[in-house]
Amino acid sequence: MSKCSICPRNCNADRINGEKGVCGVCGEGIYVSRAALHMWEEPCISGRSGSGTIFFSGCNLKCVYCQNNSISRGICGKEVSVDRLSDICMELEKKGANNINLVTPTHYALHIRDTIVKAREKGLKIPIVYNSSGYESCKTLNMLNGLIDIFLVDFKYIREETARRYSKAKDYPKAAKDAISCMVKQTGSCRFNNEGLMRKGVIVRHLLLPGHVAEGKEIIKYLYDTYGNNIYVSIMNQYTPVSGMDEYPEINRKVTKREYDRLVNYAIELGIQNAYIQEGDTAAESFIPSFDCEGV
Ligand code: SF4
């Protein structure tokens, strides 16, 4: 981390000596904004008792429409050590969590590797979920090989221009494709327990953006052509514009029901069987938890 290349930004920040990378974090600590049971992931992740979700602060992608921008912009929350983070995992398991769900973990990958090893030594039994934007480097993912049970990964853009405009990451499409390939190699095809909870596998999420049905279709087709029913696809309709989006008028609205239905119908026509879709109006802020350091 003294010349950080953990993610595809490769910004070479000297994080150890206080230089912030694009992800907005520096120092040797880990910043966590919330660690609690969370009911709003896909049913095979949340189950009935909830996913033990740990929200990290900072993010290496920084989309202009980020719903969690109160924590993604940089350092906030509470600083914890690897040892404390492994205890937090144990506490979530005791509360009945179905899994440990690491949200936006990329820039803490080194700490996370050590945390998982430590938590397993302490007796952690539940699966580890790596919940990421998809802007990952394979070198870093390979370092985590064998430690992650489930990847819950976004595939946001397949067109470079969209990735450049909304996340200043023209290389996102290639990085995400390579990352998903590494993830599928690591976990193999999806496996579930008797209660329908995922134990191993990859779920790729696509959050449909307003006016971007055609790109959404390209993404769904790419995933189905490449992985068939070896992965699950989750097609999401909950995009909600945040304040300060005047520079992006084309996405300064919610996705319409018609747009979402067009994408879902396309997935059905392709023959996708392993998919999650959302019903009703899920574009509500109530799905965003409060980042009040609960459980940290
Ligand atoms: S993890 Fe952060 S500091 Fe490291 S390369 Fe990515 S953006 Fe830069």
Q: How far apart, in Å, are the first and last alpha carbons?
A: 24 Å
Structural class: alpha/beta
Bound molecules: iron/sulfur cluster
Largest sheet: 10 strands, mixed
Could you name the CATH topology?
Answer: TIM Barrel
Radius of gyration equals 18 Å
Number of domains: 1
Under the CATH scheme, the architecture is: Alpha-Beta Barrel
**Element-level helix/strand string:** EHEHEHEHEHEHHEEHEHE
Low-confidence stretches: none
Contiguous helical run count? 9
| Fraction in helix | 25-40%
- Percent of residues in beta strands? 15-25%
Number of strands: 10
CATH class, anyone?
Alpha Beta
Q: Which geometry do the CA atoms define? A: globular
Description:
The chain is of the alpha/beta class and 296 residues long. It has one domain: TIM Barrel (Alpha-Beta Barrel), CATH 3.20.20.70. Helix content is 31%, strand content 18%. It is built from 9 helices and 10 strands. It has helices spanning 43-46, 69-72, 82-94, 109-121, 138-143, 160-167, 172-187, 213-227, 257-270; strands at 30-38, 51-56, 78-80, 100-103, 128-132, 150-154, 191-192, 198-207, 232-236, 275-277. Helix 9 (257-270) links the parallel strand 9 (232-236) and strand 10. The longest helix has 16 residues, at 172-187. The two termini are 24 Å apart. The structure holds iron/sulfur cluster (SF4).
Question: What attributes does this structure have?
Answer:
10-stranded mixed sheet, binds iron/sulfur cluster, single chain, TIM Barrel, 9 helices, 296 residues, alpha/beta
